[in-house]
Predict the structure.
Amino acid sequence: MSTRKRNASQRAQASQIAALRWGKNSEASSPSPPASPKPKKPRTRKNVVVDELNERIQALEATVSDLEARLLSASDEAYLNLAELTAARTTIQTLQGDLDEKTLELTIALERLHAVESSLEATATHLGKANKRSKRLSREKASARRSHLEKTQRLEVEKQEILSILAQLKEDARTESDKLLASTQLLHGALSEEKMKNLLLSKKNHSFDMQRRRAQESLAECRMRLHRLSTWKATKNGVYTPQARRLVRALLKAGCAGERVASAISDCAQAFGVKINRLPSRRTVFRARDEGGYFGLVQLGREVAQSKGIGISSDGTTDRKITFESSHMSLQCPTYEPGVDDTDQSTWTSQTRFIKVEPALDHKANTQFDGTKKMAAEMAAAYSNSPLAERDGEKMEADDFFRKQEFQNMDHASDGKKKLALCVDHKKDIVTADLGHQALKFLETGEFLKSLSALTKEEIETAYQEAKFEVESEGETDRATATKLIEKIVGKKVLDSIPEHEQEVLLAITFGGCCAHKDMNAFKYGVEKMEKGWEERKKTPPVVLANKANAATIRNGEPNSAAVQQALDSSSRGGVKLVSLAAALFNHSDDKRGYLEMHETFMKAEKLALHGIKDNSRFPDANNTRFNSHTKGALELLTYLDSYLRLIESCRDSKTTPGFNHVEATVYKGLQDISTITELATMSLYGMSVSWLYMAIVRGKNGQVRNLLDNDLIELHRRLPGFCEAIAANPDILLESDISDYSKVTLDGQAWSHPNTILAIQTIKDELPDLKGAITDMFSGAAEGWRQFTQEFVPGGPIDSLTPEQRARIFIPATNDHNEGALGGWRVWRRYHPSSTATSFSNKTRLERNNTEKFIEKHCNDADQIYVMRAVRVQGASGENARFHRELLEAQRGRIRAYREKQQAAELKKQKERERLISVGIIMDVDKIRKMKSTELDDQLKIHSKILNDEVLGKIRQKDLRLKNDRLTALLAAVERNKPKVLALMLLISNGNQSQMATSAHESPLSMDIDCTTEERDELDVDEEEFY
């Protein structure tokens, strides 16, 4: 039954029950009423709402009570009538649902009540604050009134005081007036006295006026002196002062052009308010620069003379078809800092000094050695003839440069090793002569005569020729010859008597190879072995990346023709070739060719969009063969392979006539070749694992040059071959996704430097054919290279043989970067100064790099300045550059003559050999061939190869025909191949048609005797026309 149908009696009963329950709950939950009743407050809106809600709650409670009563009634009826139980349960459920609905309404009503209470409390709080503010303002108003009253009373008191003071002042004024009248009378008496004093003061004033005039004259004189000081005199007695020359060199070093130096000085002087009496010309500016360079030669000579040991390094390059050599010297020398005693060697530091960049006729070892001797003589002459050497009381000999030489640092080329051997021999001769010279002081007359009689004619002539270059007069030449020979013989005996270990310490020149070239050569060994490995493993090699001409020949020629084979043989393939082509396409050295800025813009957007990397770098400069450029280029292409494909495609489609050019097509083809990508992955792994980390270690941090003798570098070079071999034996270690010990995969033991590349390789490694085999070949080949180019570091080798004193003194730069940089600087300098010479560049660089200005300031005086000025003028008038060009032309003519003579001799030898082979004749009889000796087999093979032009024999290497059986097999095969040619020759000979093949008998094989059997003649059934 619904609550809407309840009768009035039920509602009344429920209300009574609810009232009873409400009363009980109120008594239980409410606290006891206070002792004294509060006054009844007026009814507010809150009270009205509360009363309404209470009434509604009471109604709801009554409804609940009614429902409970009916529930009890229904329970009683259940005992009477079991059949009505189901209907009663249904009624109970319905009533229970109504109860839940009313309970929900009650909850909502309570929430609204709480909200109203919160609002009322906020309103009451606001009213309380307003009430407090009103009370505070009332208090402040009362306080202000009290303060005003007090101030008014105080002012009244002050007014009375002021009136009394005014009365007192009036009385004082009358008193003072009387006093002033008396004083006036006194002043009239004193006036006469003051007149007398005034007369005296006028005399003093005249005296002061005279002092003022003298002060003005002094001021004018000071101004004149100031004017003289504000004029800077750049010259003294018509010669530019050392200060002016130093200023010129400083402006040149700052980048000011020579012809702009005078203008720069003038502008600066005007800004500083200084006048200049004379400005240097362009010629004077460059003279000052060259003088600084010559001071540098004096400095180098002095440092060599004072040093206990030195080392040299060199490198060469070609610029405009002329060879240029750069040289540096490493030694311990003063710092030339102010306040430091340069004679105290404990203050010296290891320095690498620039010597010069000079042109050379060629890059041969003998030419380099002669250039080194000339360079040593120039340093010795520059210092020994200077006033500084006289003040120091010492000189430098040219032999000191070799006598004190303890190491050489250069690349691993054969010319460098040969030059080292020449220097070692020259040092041995010098040391031998020194020992002989010392021994001669204590040699008896008999021993001297005995040594003199043991001289041979050849020794005398050699010594005489050498002595002629050292002395001037004939008499001195004879004495020098005899002395040199005796010193050599005696010195050799003394040297032989010294223990072998001491001889090595005395004579050895340690070789320290450039670490950058070690890395480059090891990488080359690895790449070569990786390229050969495709054929050895019988895997598909990388696609051929031919140039335009070879590609056309391969595309249009016959598949098995000689031209196609030649094009294939002369074409390159693989990762290195692809990186070089990519560098030419993306970062060409010519700013008008390739993609250049388009590549940077496109790849910057791709890397940021796809990988979240902000990178605006250029493609590695493999086009100019920079160190590590090929491995970095391989990593770049592999990591962003899809982006580079899209770059090439976008450039292709954006052209006026869409399509690839040859380089684009070749690079695009290489980027899609799986075998080439395999090589890129291998090169990238080698770079991240070995090459880049090695270069970072040997080059040091923050540009600091490392010493090759540092213990960590020695240990590094000793473990490199084993490290590479371990990876070659287990290539899987580089491809693992979770590496626990990085010391086995990276040289420095740190995590991968390019995790994106490692992720790319791991993603595609299953698609790459024999990636593990390529890694094995690459690292095993690199291990061979490291073992080959780290010979100086092997235990018991040259470095281990150095004494502790030498180890503490010698500083071998880990790389040859200083010479590489000097040669690069010369190329850039010549690009912007095309008429300049290597001597000018050397003077400029020597001055800037060797701390020469501090040396000049600390150790040189006016006498040295005059000496250097004269020496530079002599050097400038020597015509050195013109003389070199004459020597260069003469050397070129000599090479041309030698080449032509060699060609003529080779042609003559070839003609004689051809005539001899024709006289021997070709033999086709197999039985006779089997009975031939080795020399006869060689002659027959030469006939088939050189006269009959057998292509198969032309491709066979000589080392494959070292055994007689191999030669016999090759000759029998050639006989079978060349039977048709021989028959045609026989037919032509018999018909007298020799003129169809050659114009003379000695140029044709038709005059040869052809020896073959009758059966063989019958087998040679070939048409004469087919032969042609």
In short: The chain has a mean pLDDT of 83. The chain is about 70% helix and 5% strand.
